[in-house]
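Consortium newsletter contribution from the modelling node. Members have asked for a concrete example of what our holo predictions look like. Here is one, prepared for the S-adenosylmethionine complex that several groups have been discussing at recent meetings.
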Amino acid sequence: MQLKELIKFKKDDGIVIRGPNVQSKAIINPARHLKYYSVNKETEEIMAHNLKWVKNGEGDPRFQFVYIMLPTSCNQVCRGCFTGQDKSKLLANLDGPFFRNEELEAILGTAKQVGVQAVIYAGGGELFTWKSAFDYIDRIIGHGLGMVIFTNGTLLSNAEIAWVNDRNIALIISIRDTIEAKHNQLVGRPHFRLALKTIEECLRLGMQGDGRLAVEMPVTINNENRALNDLLPFCRALGIVPWIEEFIQISTSNEEQSVCHDFGRAREFFQKMAAKDAELGIVWSPEHGTRMIDQPQCRRPLYSFTVYPNGDVVDCPSHSRKYGNLKEEPLERILDSERVREVFRLFEYCPCSVFYTDGDEQIPLALPDYLEELR
Ligand SMILES: C[S@@+](CC[C@H](N)C(=O)[O-])C[C@H]1O[C@@H](n2cnc3c(N)ncnc32)[C@H](O)[C@@H]1O
Ligand code: SF4
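And here is the predicted structure:
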């Protein structure tokens, strides 16, 4: 199936993604795992290794990937952006310069030593606004590491997409709605067609066949029906990994929070997504802590870590328990510290967003203030 068979033009809405009656037989080779990033058997082994490391005190911790956050600017102002791009109030740990080459070399060298397979770019802005983005990518690839890039997909030419594809990089392209007019309003720019054009070119190059193409959309009560009826079947029909996730509410205004799911609505949403996928021939069940469809409970701190421009090394970009700072201690020592052991030892489901819970009694007792009202 081709992307153009799954879009139409409507007078007031512009381009619209539709997922009309896509049946399981229409799905060719559905990609359910994103290369380097999704949880797989190896991830489970890494987590088991780390728990053993904490228990026995022998050996070293291992990690699947590292998020290296950068002080990149952005060409969009998406409402509720978790790094704060829409409010000109960035997360404090994004406040710092780009890493110098020597610093980056040290991070990548240590990352390799602790088993990291890929570097993830997840912000804080749009990587391709930065003139050195391609040199940065090449430096990472030069270390024999893979890469996953979250991007709004608006700045890449076809030649650049081919360049990215040649390096086996996985792209997660973000949209805010399946309707052009709504997406453009939410990102504050007329960018829907640019994102769609990039998705189409990635498909043409076959990135989906290798689990290297995802489309991401944070879900609210405004777009949840289209996530279910349009985006999910669209992705399944084209072999794209549907990265449909709960809204992270750490940089949201009260008004934005009012359209995010509460725990009850999140429960209903994941159950409906699983039922729709079952109709499409893909079987999974939400589990306690699931925050993305068709993915298990979020346990990222047990197999990844995050480095910020101010030097902070933390457990994950959303929850951010600090392990140390690169200006004070080398990464190798930070990762081997008691802070990391404690996060592993006492690991519990992070209440940084609203996740799937089987019932109200599973909602964590301690929630950050911004989630208390969503109980
Ligand atoms: C911060 S963005 C940076 C990369 C790039 N600018 C982009 O939009 O893809 C990384 C990812 O976080 C997602 N994101 C941003 N704010 C979010 C929120 N409040 N909840 C869930 N996901 C969010 C974006 O849609 C994107 O997929
Ligand atoms: S494009 Fe990405 S970084 Fe920029 S505002 Fe949107 S979500 Fe945030």
